[in-house]
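Worked example (supplementary).
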Amino acid sequence: MNKHKKELTTQEAFVRQHRRHHHQIAFYRLFFFLLFLALWETSARLGWIDSFFFSSPSLVAKCLWGMVLDRSLFLHVGITLMETIVSFLLVFLISLISATLLWYSQKLSEITEPYLVILNSLPKSALAPLFIVWLGTGSTTIVVAGISVALFGSIISFYTGFQQVDSEKITLIYTLGGHKGDAFRKVILPGSIPIMLSTTKVNIGLALVGVIIGEFLAARRGLGYLIIYGSQVFQLNLVITSILILCVIAMGFYKGIQCIEHHIKKQLKM
Amino acid sequence: MDKNILELKNISYSYHSLHGETKALDRITFGVREGEFVAVVGPSGCGKSTLLSIIAGLLPAEEGTILVNNPDGSLHYPRVGYMLQREHLFEWRSIYKNVILGLEINHMLTPERLEYVNSLLRDYDLEKFKDKRPSELSGGMKQRAALIRTLALQPQLLLLDEPFSALDYQTRLMVSADICHLIRRTGKTVILITHDLSEAVSLADRIVVLSGRPATVKKEIPIHLTLQDDSPLAARNAPEFNEYFNQLWEEMRS
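After joint prediction of all chains, the assembly is encoded as:
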């Protein structure tokens, strides 16, 4: 009886220790954030830094509130979000189809390999001016810019993931009378879900990078436009506010994908 | 004497690379009777697995033919069930979904087939584990699940490619005895590939000894053991066991 009780308490102690650890982490995260804000605000008020160039939390809040009041916040954030999500989804779809084709045809993958490597290492911002000339200054250009940043790396990751699946598992499909299509559906695709999820996490960030580059050069709306506009008219409050909104968006995307990943893994009990 | 249902005649196979040709199989000839348990032994890397792939139809033989004499006189190639070295159950499927994989691929998810699968799961004590994932099962249970997956397609000829070599020795002894006992009960024709001589002697009706690369048939040894009971490990205690073992050992060394 006594022994049983003791075991229970060590388990409880473990759980308590675990919780305390996580509370501490959360506390310090918040603490450093608030400390940063306080330091920033104080230095701006005491004139250690020039708030015209470096802004301050209160100025950012004021700027944000102004954008809420004139509704421009929702327009710009909405546009950037929409363009990023469309780019991201298209990247996922195109890379899945391309990687599938490459997996089906060894020849095709060998032929395209150097091109993929070149396109992947090419700085995509160099292409943006071309997209503007070809596609004009609308959302299409920006979505294409977003796609171009994430796509080639994503195709390579998906294809590598497909290739890493144990070839004996494919042999197993053949021994059960299956064909290449069965091998793809029953082994390659489900076996590559973890690598596809981790690639997806990177892709959403890259799509955002591409969209912001696109908006820098060819937009009248969106956060990238706000940043460029703000810097040109020396409204650095606007620039810094936009950057902070981007931080929040990036975190939101990451958490969203993490949530989907968790859900899928739970569903598949992986 | 039963007729051979499968007859290999002068099967040859070579692997090709830019550095040249490596002959793996050289005029392999032997037959398999219906319901017979044949073990093929030979040194590691002699081309045993290649031979099995050819019999399974996964690889075309470069030379030679395989003759088929089905007991019912039909000419179709017997349905082959192939067990690989590792069980390869998919972690993203439950045990039940794993064992019906072959039926799924062949679009044979009929009530009769599924009932057969369920009866196998009951017989092999896996019914409780139907909804578990492979990682939750022991090595022996995974091998049983893999066997059910193979048997679900009701093959006429079972090919076992060192199916237990990934297990540790103790588990292997138990599992190979267990699985082969189960297979014997089905009365199916079996070709087992192994490099474990005692495994071959304890399980097979006949042993085909292959030479090193390129593999040729060195000798065929029929096995008759006096068994006290049909417990899986009884064969290893049979009086003739050592004699056969030594005979094989000499054959392999020379």
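Two points are worth noting when inspecting this output. The beta strands of chain B are 4-17, 20-33, 37-41, 63-68, 80-83, 157-161, 189-194, 206-210, 217-222. The interface with chain A takes residues 56, 58, 80-82, 84-86, 88, 90-93, 101-102, 104-106, 133, 149, 153 of chain B (CB under 8 Å).
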